[in-house]
Amino acid sequence: MDSIQNRITAFAKLGTFLSQFSQEKVAKKENIEHNDLFFDGFKHQLKIAQENNSWFTKENLLFSLESWSKTLTKSNLEKWIFNNNLKIKTPKTVAIVMAGNIPLVGFHDFLSVLISGHSVLVKQSSGDKHILPFLAKYLEYVEEEFKGNITFTEEKLENFDAVIATGNDNTARYFEYYFKDKPNIIRKSRNSVAVLKGNETEEDLQKLADDVFTYFGLGCRSVSKIYVPKNYDFNNFFNGMYVKKDIIENAKYANNYDYNKAVYLMSEFDLLENGFLMIKEDKSYSSPIATVFYEYYDNEIDLKIKLYEDKDKIQCIVAKDFIENEVDFGETQNPQLWDYADGINTLQFLSEI
Predict the structure, then answer these.
(1) Superfamily of domain covering 4-189
(2) ∠ at Cα 119 (113, 125), nearest 5°?
């Protein structure tokens, strides 16, 4: 594979194809390449994905697809690629071990490998295995260069030159041992936090509700913990969260809420709750579903030091005028192509293997 412009064009065409699947509506458009072959089939794959994983609601699937359709534009892709000065000497085969916590969670790695000019060998999670192979087939139709360079496997990974693997902290230890002889990126568990000062507007906190509840809080970019000043008024926080009250109508979320609430009450933990979300004072970053942890801070400097020391556990910091590289309220689930997971430049890694 040698023409990067062809690869950029192919992914931009994929973005156009995905633009038919938005949260507002799913509607077939005219003049989209191979639409007669792929549109109805993709609708069917989305239905299967929903049936296979009850966290993959129609709303969450369409949110993911709409996000990628907005990201996969020619201008975005060119800005990303040419800022990295990509020069692949010898195409390699790169294995990707994908997580399955949210729809298309491994797509950025998949995109990075292919657009770099390498071949990809994908091992998917059982929780998210229906959408990507179909999109890969679409890519092969719009750009023949990809044919023979995209492989999916459910077997043991073999015959690859480098690996990108994502898992929890336990599987990461296994990955580090198993892939120790290959160039690798091993991703562990991370969570996102928000720093509140107490002067946030109602709109700020309603946007924060998106950061907390999108994908039911299952993503590494989902806010699972908030830092608040002493004497913070949690009524303001709960008022902001109220825009997402309908989430409790999802049976699986409701079951998790009831279970975790029962565990907390039996353990006699102090917690505040509003009927669909609990908040609990806790130093950990990873909170259970339907729960956000909170921790008080005395001064901003000490908090900045703590967040820096724990940077390997944190994906995003949501704040307003608090820290460098902070993410605006409501924007954690809208990363740019160059907002790399774990802060590791995937394209740079792929250009050096």
Answers:
(1) Aldehyde Dehydrogenase; Chain A, domain 1 (3.40.605.10)
(2) 70
Measured CA to CA, the distance from residue 308 to residue 195 in angstroms comes to 13
| Closest listed residue to residue 295, CA positions, set 202, 196, 191 | 196
SS3 call for 33: coil
Indicate the pTM of the whole model. 0.95
How far is Cα 321 from Cα 329, in angstroms, rounded to an integer?
11
CATH superfamily, domain at 191-318: Aldehyde Dehydrogenase; Chain A, domain 2 (3.40.309.10)
Token pair for 219: 């993503």
Phi, psi of 255 (to 5 degrees): -60, -40
Which secondary structure element, helix H or strand E, spans residue 45, and what is its range? helix 35-52
DSSP string of 255-287, one letter each residue? HHHHHHHHHHHHTT--EEE-SS-EEEE-S-S-P
Q: If you search the block for the tokens 């740079």, which residue do you land on?
A: 348
Per-residue confidence (pLDDT) for residue 1, from 0 to 100: 46
- Distance (Å, whole) CA 213 – CA 132: 24
**pLDDT tens digits for range 200-257:** 999 999 999 999 999 999 999 999 999 999 999 999 999 999 999 999 999 999 999 9
